[in-house]
């Protein structure tokens, strides 16, 4: 088996002391970031993007991947112990986890979350290992029209599936696309919307947009509106599951893993949907329905947490083989690849085989590290929750400065950062989703290039977009994504 | 809320207008594709204009649909008023940092930002706490965060951050 050979070599690369160190560092920082309210994995990876200027690609991608799902492990700790859920994906965990914690079962909730994440993450990694080369093999057959359609599909799902209003989703998306237009046009080399400012010629920096939209906007939102919110913390109990709790958790983990994986691979905007789906499934199958929403059902924590991790891991398949990010953090990882001049896509497995397989191997290693970091050492992380809000957010601003200034050494960027922060504050205040902005900005220029290449192939005829069978199928998918949910709603009424 | 929503909608329309104005200056030289570098800018401008108009319609007819927080937002419990003083302090911290980072150096400029921002958060929590002792403590905490970060990035990772002196330690 060729795949297993390559994976073995991946382990050899990922197992070098320096790469193991990067993985450990990533997992540790990721867990800390997951535990701390205020910044998520997307922001954390964005802030640390300047390291791509110095560290070689394999090390830094291993590091970033560690942060990516370290944050998912850490996030569950916060949502179980603190009565204010952080990011959307842990909201479901918070519902049941919090109830369990209030009833003195915080330890069991934490254990099922961590072990469930491990099980789901590992199974999903196996799927990535097997599926990535297969997907890449077929992806080579895709031409510019198909790629363009895939990217439009990603836009459509991210905007119409996430958030409550498709209109606000699309507004966000087009703002992101507009930001992506700033800079040099990739095909003709013409400057667009640069206003003669040299910093804008290079385009908007991913770090700037992500850190501004997530970290600075969050910091401004907290100072304006959340000053008087008092957080209460549940008591931590011994991290341990009884035999019955194991018996109830295991099927939930497995079901959730298979709900999570497909949702990570299709461009459906990350892990919110699978976590909710898994929660609904567990509620339906459970023999202890009376515990849901009252004393807290362990399946309600086990399932969503596993689904979350499975989806997160599976986002790597479209990212690595098609170059299409399906979540915020994946979009930023794509930015990291671009900083190295690497364009993820079907050729990546050939041109950068060492990097890809080391990255995949590091996922296996990272999952083990995270299990150790999160089970016996959970007490340590809980202490992070005691950091007072004032110092926490003021500290986040310092890290934001490092990330943004470190990328281009320009004070102009720091003013721009504040502007993007204000934009993010308005988005947040009026309930516009932020993810489409980031995905639109990063994927927009790529989609534009694909569209223009596609039309060149078709000698200027738009019909190329629906005459080829694959792109016609994708077009049908796009229409379905936009129309079906509305149709279902109308029929229900 | 409705008036501010109208403003947001008008703002979206303004962005669309600016994009369209800018798009007129971009060449339309198309090559084989039939569409030039100005095509997507026009599409985005038009789409944002549609979104803006739609948002305006929603804002004027009962407000944005399906908002997360109908009525007072859950997070604005307490006195329910946004804390503008705190906001000003945090904004000042970020902007002064941007203005001073090349002259004061990373560490001092960030520590200053930290002190201003903590003032803002303390004010938003209802106790600004301007006693010299707390000020000094916040300054020290700011330094303790900024300095190791600076050394880590400049010494270990060789990423350029501005310093006050050429020694590279401050």
Automatic annotation (TrEMBL), chain A:
Transmembrane segments: 20-53, 108-135, 147-163, 170-187, 207-225, 355-378, 390-407, 414-430, 470-488
The entry's keywords: Membrane, Transmembrane, Transmembrane helix
Originating organism: Aquincola tertiaricarbonis
Domain spans labelled DUF112: 20-439
Protein name, per record: Tripartite tricarboxylate transporter permease
Lineage: Bacteria, Pseudomonadati, Pseudomonadota, Betaproteobacteria, Burkholderiales
Protein origin, superkingdom: Bacteria
Alphabetical list of InterPro entries matching this protein: DUF112_TM
TrEMBL record, chain B:
A UniProt-annotated Pfam family: TctB
Domain DUF1468: residue ranges: 8-162
Highest taxon listed in the record's lineage: Bacteria
TM segment ranges: 39-57, 94-119, 139-158
Keywords, ordered alphabetically: Membrane, Transmembrane, Transmembrane helix
InterPro entries assigned to the protein according to its UniProt record, in alphabetical order: DUF1468
Protein name from the UniProt record: Tripartite tricarboxylate transporter TctB family protein
């Amino acid at each position: 088996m060729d795949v297993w050979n390559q994976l073995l070599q991946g382990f050899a690369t990922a197992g070098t002391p320096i790469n193991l160190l990067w993985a450990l560092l990533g997992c540790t920082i990721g867990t800390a970031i997951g535990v701390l309210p205020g910044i998520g994995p997307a922001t954390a990876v964005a802030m640390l993007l300047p390291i791509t200027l110095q560290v070689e690609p394999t090390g830094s991608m291993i590091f970033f991947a560690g942060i990516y799902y370290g944050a998912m492990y850490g996030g569950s700790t916060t949502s179980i112990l603190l009565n204010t859920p952080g990011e959307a994906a842990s909201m479901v965990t918070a519902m049941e986890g919090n109830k369990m914690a209030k009833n003195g079962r915080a330890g069991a909730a934490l254990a099922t979350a961590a072990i469930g994440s491990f099980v789901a993450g590992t199974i999903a990694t196996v799927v990535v290992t097997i599926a990535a080369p297969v997907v890449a093999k077929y992806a080579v057959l895709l031409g510019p029209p198909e790629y363009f359609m895939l990217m439009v599909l990603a836009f459509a799902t991210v905007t119409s599936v996430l958030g409550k209003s498709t209109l606000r989703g699309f507004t966000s998306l087009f703002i992101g696309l507009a930001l992506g237009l700033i800079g040099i046009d990739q095909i003709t080399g013409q400057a667009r919307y640069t206003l003669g400012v040299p910093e804008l010629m290079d385009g908007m920096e991913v770090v700037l947009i992500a850190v501004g939209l997530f970290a600075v906007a969050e910091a401004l939102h907290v100072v304006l509106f959340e000053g008087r919110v008092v957080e209460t913390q549940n008591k931590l109990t011994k991290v341990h599951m009884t035999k019955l709790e194991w018996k109830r958790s295991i099927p939930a983990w497995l079901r959730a893993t298979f709900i999570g994986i497909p949702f990570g691979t299709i461009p459906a905007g990350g892990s919110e949907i699978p976590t909710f789906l898994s929660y609904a499934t567990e509620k339906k199958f459970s023999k202890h329905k009376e515990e849901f929403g009252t004393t807290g059902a362990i399946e309600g924590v086990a399932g969503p947490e596993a689904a979350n991790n499975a989806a997160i891991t599976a986002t790597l398949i479209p990212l690595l083989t098609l170059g299409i990010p399906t979540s915020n953090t994946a979009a930023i990882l794509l930015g990291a690849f671009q900083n190295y001049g690497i364009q993820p896509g079907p050729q990546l497995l050939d041109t950068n085989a060492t990097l890809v397989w080391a990255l995949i191997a590091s996922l296996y290693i990272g999952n083990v590290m995270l299990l150790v970091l999160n089970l016996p050492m959970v007490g340590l992380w809980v202490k992070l929750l005691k950091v007072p809000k004032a110092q926490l957010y003021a500290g986040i601003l310092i890290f934001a400065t490092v990330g943004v200034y470190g990328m281009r050494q320009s004070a102009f960027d720091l003013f721009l950062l504040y502007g993007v922060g204000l934009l993010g504050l308005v988005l947040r205040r009026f309930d516009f989703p932020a993810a489409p902005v980031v995905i639109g900005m990063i994927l927009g220029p790529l989609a534009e290039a694909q569209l223009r290449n596609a039309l060149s192939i078709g000698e200027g005829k738009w019909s190329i977009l629906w005459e080829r069978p694959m792109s016609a199928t994708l077009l049908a998918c796009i229409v379905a994504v936009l129309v079906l949910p509305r149709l279902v709603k109308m029929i229900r009424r | 809320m409705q008036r501010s929503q109208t403003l947001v909608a008008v703002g979206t329309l303004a962005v669309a207008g600016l994009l369209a104005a800018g798009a007129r200056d971009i060449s339309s030289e198309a090559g084989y594709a039939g569409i030039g570098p100005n095509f997507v800018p026009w599409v985005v401008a038009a789409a944002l204009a549609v979104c803006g108009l739609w948002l305006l319609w929603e804002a004027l007819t009962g407000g944005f649909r399906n908002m997360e927080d109908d009525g007072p937002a859950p997070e604005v419990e307490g006195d329910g008023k946004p804390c503008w003083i705190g906001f000003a302090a945090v904004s000042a911290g970020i902007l002064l940092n941007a203005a001073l980072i090349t002259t004061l150096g990373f560490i001092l400029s960030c520590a200053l930002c930290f002190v201003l921002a903590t003032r803002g958060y303390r004010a938003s929590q209802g106790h600004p706490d301007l006693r010299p002792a707390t000020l000094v403590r916040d300054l020290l905490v700011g330094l303790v965060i900024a300095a190791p970060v600076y050394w880590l990035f400049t010494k270990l990772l060789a990423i350029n951050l501005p310093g006050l002196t050429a020694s590279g330690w401050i």
